[in-house]
Write a structure and sequence with these properties.
It contains 15 helices and 9 strands. The protein is α/β, with parallel strands linked by helices. The strands form 2 sheets. The protein has a 6-stranded mixed β-sheet, with helices on both faces. Strands 4-6-8 form a 3-stranded parallel β-sheet. The protein is globular.
Length: 315
C-alpha cells in the first residue's frame, strides 16, 4: 500500500450522512450523523453498501475503514424512530426495505473479499455492531461501550447479533442478549465482538498509518494489551444462572447469588419484555411467518399508559 493520509476532516453539517473517501489504497467510510450518534438510515445503509461493492471490484483498493464522525461513538444503531414514523406514514413495507438493506449490508461486510477495519470507538449499539463486529479487523478503545439492546424495544439482537452472541463464552452471550447490557472494550474482545484494543488518543495516528504501506502492521503498532474482562470474570454466576430452562428459574438463581446485581433491573425489564406479547409477536412477524406485519398490543403509543410502563420496573 502506498500513499499517506490524514484523518477525515470534522463534519461541517452540510455534508452527506456518509462520507466516502480514498487515502492511498485505503477506502474510508465515515458515518456522518454525529448529532444522532450516527444512527443508520436507509440512504446511509445504501451508501455503505455501494462503496463496499465498488471497492470490492477495484484492485487499487486494498482495504477499507469504517469509522464514525463526532466524539460520541461509531453508531447508536438503526434510526428506528425514523423507520417507525415512515412505516406509520407509508406502510409496513418501509420497515421491510430498511431491514432487507441493512441485513444485506451486514452480510456484505461479513463476506467481504478484502480486509475491513472497523473503529468501534465510543457508543456502538445494535446496528453499530452490525457495521463493525462482522468486519475482519475490529478495534475497540478505552471508551468503547458496546451492546445489543434490542430486547428493550420488543425486538431481538438482530443484524447478526444472534450469530455473534451465540458464540460468546459460556452463557455470556445469553446474558447480553436478554439484558441489553453495554460492555467495555476488554469484554467486547473476550466475547468475540472485537479483536484489538487501541487507546482513543491514538486513533488519529492509527487512521493515518492505515493508509501507509503496511495497514496490518499499523494495527499491531497501536494495539495494546487488553485489561481483565469483567464479564468473563463473572462467568461463574452467569453460566450458573443462564443455563436454567425458564426465565423464572433464571431469576430465581440470580436472586440466590451473593454478588451484588447491578444489572438486576435491566434483566428484570428484559425478562418481562421477552415474556410479553410484543416480543412474541415481533419474532413471529419478522422471523416465523415473515409477513412483516406485527400486531402490537397496544397498537399505538397513545395506548401505552404510565402504569403499563411502571410495571416493568417493579421489584
Amino acid at each position: 500500500m502506498t500513499g499517506t493520509s490524514t484523518p477525515a476532516p470534522a463534519p461541517t453539517g452540510d455534508e452527506p450522512d456518509v462520507l466516502v473517501s480514498r487515502h492511498g489504497r485505503l477506502g474510508h467510510i465515515q458515518l456522518n450523523r454525529p448529532r444522532a450518534m450516527n444512527a443508520l438510515t436507509l440512504p446511509m445503509v445504501e451508501a455503505i453498501a455501494s462503496a463496499l461493492a465498488t471497492w470490492a471490484e477495484d484492485d487499487s483498493v486494498e482495504a477499507a475503514l469504517i469509522s464514525g464522525a463526532g466524539d460520541r461513538g461509531l453508531c447508536a444503531g438503526g434510526d428506528v424512530v425514523t423507520v417507525r414514523r415512515e412505516a406509520l406514514e407509508d406502510g409496513p413495507e418501509v420497515a421491510s426495505r430498511f431491514w432487507a438493506a441493512e441485513y444485506a449490508m451486514n452480510l456484505a461486510i461479513a463476506e467481504y473479499p478484502k480486509p475491513i477495519v472497523a473503529l468501534m470507538d465510543g457508543i456502538v449499539l445494535g446496528g453499530g455492531v452490525g457495521v463493525s463486529s462482522h468486519a475482519s479487523i475490529r478495534i475497540v478503545t478505552d471508551r468503547s461501550r458496546v451492546g445489543m439492546p434490542e430486547t428493550g424495544i420488543g425486538l431481538f439482537p438482530d443484524v447478526g447479533g444472534t450469530y455473534l452472541l451465540s458464540r460468546a463464552p459460556g452463557e455470556t452471550g445469553t446474558h447480553l442478549a436478554l439484558t441489553g447490557t453495554m460492555i467495555g472494550g476488554s469484554d467486547a474482545i473476550a466475547v468475540g465482538l472485537a479483536d484489538h484494543l487501541v487507546p482513543h488518543a491514538d486513533l488519529d495516528a492509527l487512521v493515518a498509518a492505515l493508509a501507509g504501506d503496511d495497514w496490518a502492521g499499523a494495527v499491531a503498532t497501536y494495539a495494546v494489551a487488553t485489561p481483565e474482562a469483567p464479564l468473563i470474570a463473572a462467568r461463574a454466576w452467569i453460566d450458573d444462572a443462564y443455563t436454567a430452562d425458564s426465565v423464572e428459574e433464571v431469576l430465581q438463581r440470580l436472586r440466590g447469588r451473593p454478588e451484588p446485581e447491578a444489572l438486576a433491573a435491566e434483566f428484570r425489564i428484559a425478562s418481562r419484555l421477552t415474556s410479553g406479547h410484543d416480543f412474541v409477536e415481533g419474532v413471529r412477524a419478522q422471523l416465523v411467518d415473515k409477513d412483516r406485519t406485527p400486531h402490537w398490543d397496544p397498537p399505538t403509543l397513545a395506548g401505552v399508559t404510565p402504569e403499563m410502563v411502571d410495571a416493568y420496573f417493579v421489584g
